Amino acid sequence: QLQVVESGGGLVQPGGSLRLSCAASGFSLDYYWIGWFRQAPGKEREGVSCISTSGGTNYADSVKGRFTISRDYAKNTVYLQMDSLKPEDTAVYYCGGRFGVQPMCVIATSPYEYDYSGQGTQVTVSS
């Protein structure tokens, strides 16, 4: 079965850190770029970050300098390290995969822009 599964969400205090994982099964990340987007209650979906097949990365201005995306080819998994978290980072975080061997990626905001997307993981930043 071709899918991506997110994990690693939880409750964290402002200023804290979390690492989200996006594990792909049924297809190789060697041929797919991976992106993260988020959805907060009452807000529009927001693209967060992406990483290309060759490791090129892109970040939304709202998370630049605080979030880091990386990939482990052996584990076929992409990670989103989130530091200095703020209450406004509270959202359900989704990852998606799109076929394309290219040096850079685009930050997508909709699951329809991906070939595969997951069910999401909740991140809550609160004291």
What labels describe this entry?
127 residues; mainly beta; seven-stranded mixed β-sheet; four-stranded antiparallel β-sheet; 11 strands; 0% helix; 48% strand; globular
Can you walk me through this structure?
A hairpin with a 5-residue loop joins strand 5 and strand 6 (57-59). It contains no helices and eleven strands. The strands form two sheets. Strands 2, 4, 5, 6, 9, 10 and 11 form a seven-stranded mixed sheet that branches. It is an all-beta fold.
Structural class: mainly beta
User: First CA to last CA: what distance?
Assistant: 39 Å
In DSSP terms (H or I, runs of 4 or more residues), the helix count works out at 0
Strand/helix succession: EEEEEEEEEEE
Summarize the entry for a quick read:
This protein has 127 residues and is an all-beta fold. It has strands at residues 3-7, 10-12, 18-25, 32-39, 46-51, 57-59, 67-72, 77-82, 91-99, 116-117, 121-125.
How would the blueprint of this fold be written?
Elements lengths: L2 E5 L2 E3 L5 E8 L6 E8 L6 E6 L5 E3 L7 E6 L4 E6 L8 E9 L16 E2 L3 E5 L2
Parallel strand pairs: 2-11
Antiparallel strand pairs: 1-3, 3-8, 4-5, 4-9, 5-6, 7-8, 9-10, 9-11
